[in-house]
Amino acid sequence: MSTTTAVAPLTTADAETLVTAARAAAEAAGVAVSVTVLDAGGHLLAFRRDDRAVLISGETSTRKAYTALQLDAPTADLVDLVKPDGPFHSLPTALDRPLLFIAGGIPVHRDGRLIGALGIGGGAPEQDHSFATAALAQLG
What we know:
CATH topology: Beta-Lactamase
Structural class: alpha+beta
Largest sheet: 4 strands, antiparallel
Strand order of the largest sheet: 2-1-4-3
Strand content: 15-25%
Number of domains: 1
Oligomer: single chain
């Protein structure tokens, strides 16, 4: 007999923790960013664009979070897979979905289960990825 243990979903309090931590990491680096947090169903839990962040960062942070969620992988790990010679080179254009293969999106897990995703936009891709991982570390 198998039993399924419920995993607590990503809450709005969790989302606020992620947004606050990501913004603090970005601010410490002098970078203005947008931060998006999605739940496991891809629904927006939290969003924040710094006043000085470039406008497109709002869209890129959301698309990075969505991509990380759908593929259950950091977007930084997917960049090479969609290059012209990569195994998934057609994926960005094959689906009518807002996928974006630029570092800065990471899935969020609890007890080994995918419960949401975090996306950061506004800095260089490597910076966005580091802000996301720093934020995730604060979630505990």
